[in-house]
Structures are given as C-alpha cells and as structure tokens.
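forwarding from the other thread:

> can someone predict this with zinc ion?

sure thing
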Amino acid sequence: MASKKKVIITCAVTGAIHTPSMSKHLPVTAEQIADQAIAAAKAGAAILHLHARDPQNGKPSQDPELFRPFLSKIREHTDAVINITTGGSPHMTVEERMRPVMTFKPELASLNMGSMNFGLFPMLERFKNFEHEWEREHLENSRDLIFKNTYKDIETILRRGTDNGTRFEFECYDISHLYNLAHFMDRGLVQSPPFIQSVFGILGGIGPNPEDLMHMRRTADRLFGDNYQWSILGAGRNQIPLATMGAAMGSNVRVGLEDSLWIGPGQLASSNGQQVSQIRTVIEALNLEVATPDEARATLQLKG
Ligand SMILES: C[C@H](N)CC(=O)CC(=O)O
Ligand SMILES: [Zn+2]
C-alpha cells in the first residue's frame, strides 16, 4: 500500500439509514446538515460525505435542490472535500440516486460496488417509537430489499462521473466487491489510486470482526498491490473500534451519524463533530497526524 502521509478522516453527516426518531442529534434540515458538517470539518474531517433529507419529515431525498443550500454554506465556511452520495437510499432507482452528482459534479462521490441484501430491520429491536410512519416502513421493508448495483449501474455511474472529473469512494461491503472493483480497473474505467471504503457490519455484507477486516485488507493487497488508498467504515457500535484498528494498520477512517448514532455503549452521540474528535484523539494517541483537505486531495489526486 502506498506510503501514506496522514490519516484522512471522512465524516458521513446524515446518510439515509437512520431516521429522525432514532436520535434528535441526526441532522435533517439543510441548516442542521451544514452546521454539523462545518463543525465536523473544524474537528478534523478532511472529507464530508453528504446525503439530503426532506426537511418536513426527514425522509432521504436525492433532490438536488435539497443539497444546494447546505453545499453552498459548507463551501463558504470550509475547504473540506465534498463527497456526494450516489447510493442515496437503497429504496431509490439508480437514475434518482445519480441526480445530485450529475448536477454538482463534486470532487468525490460514493460508488457502491455490488448488489446486496441491506438489512435494517434489526434496528426495530432497539427503536420502537417513530414520529413518521415512513420510518417504520423504511426498516420493515428492508426484509425484502435488494440494494441494486449491477455491473451496468456501476459502469453508468463510473463513466458519467468520470466525464465530470469526479472521482469515487468505492464502497466495498464484501470481498466480492473488491473483485468487482478489480474488474473495472482491468477495463481501465477506474483511475489510480482507487479510494476503497471498506464497510463492515451492515447486515447483508461482511461482518465487523477484526478477522473480516484482515481478510478485506489481505485481499485488497493481493488485488491492488500498493496502488490503493484504504479506508475503514464500521457500522454502529463497531465504528470507533474498527477505525482504531484500521488507523493502527495505516488505513484512513470514516465516522459520522450516517454510520453510527453512538459515542459509547447506549450513549447517543451529540453531533458528528463529537465522533470526529473522538477518532482524532485515537489517531493522535497512535502518533499519527490528521490530513488536511488539501493533503487528502493530493493523496487521492482529486480535481480540487
Ligand atoms: C454504509 C454506508 N451507508 C455506505 C454509503 O454511504 C453508501 C452511499 O452513500 O453511497
Ligand atoms: Zn452514504
């Protein structure tokens, strides 16, 4: 793996997995998303991974007009790298999912590297009371949900994004997704070094055990040699433990309320910035340094 300068922290601010009734700290309105993103950048996040929500009921939305207000405020107050989702919500069509990236042509966008079951229903054990009916349906319907990312879908997003100078955060939820990435690299559709966001602990993908992390790392080393940038995303309670293990092994890290609502066992995080500060403390305790947005741009060779 390329000799890494510093640890790139990505903060995933709101996402499309958790719902407002689960935590009052989950940002929903454009103002809330912007303010939490700016605070996360100030706390040390070099990359901000962004989704939008309907301000009325918090429902995930890929409407570019819901992204526009917080994108301009974030750009006004930080030089963080903007990473816009193409995953949207697993309940959306690929066309719908691509709208904001095609509108705003960001430096970075997420790209999910395979179709999979996407089990959110276990959260119904933990969360019982919902203000909006869509929240319960969102979880319940995931029993019969396929997060669709066919080779045609992936190629379409890759080609269209690359035409706009956008590079990708390749979301790999399992070993097969690394092979899918290798396939598109072999076809010359992926610019080097690929930024691999390995996702652990989503039901339907690979588990959150340190053995799973090692297996993803060994496989990536075998497929990509030292020509890739690695990042670790642990879902839920696995967020900080896996990010810590990853950082100690030379990986970049991702935190944020999209991936986990927690700061400790049974303790809701009060903000995205709180999670960024927590992982920053770990990184600096490992005698590593946090990358600035421009250092992240250089490492990932972004258009800036
Ligand atoms: C597990 C994460 N929700 C992965 C993600 O962030 C997908 C996307 O936005 O494209
Ligand atoms: Zn996302």
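The mean pLDDT is 96. thats all i got for now
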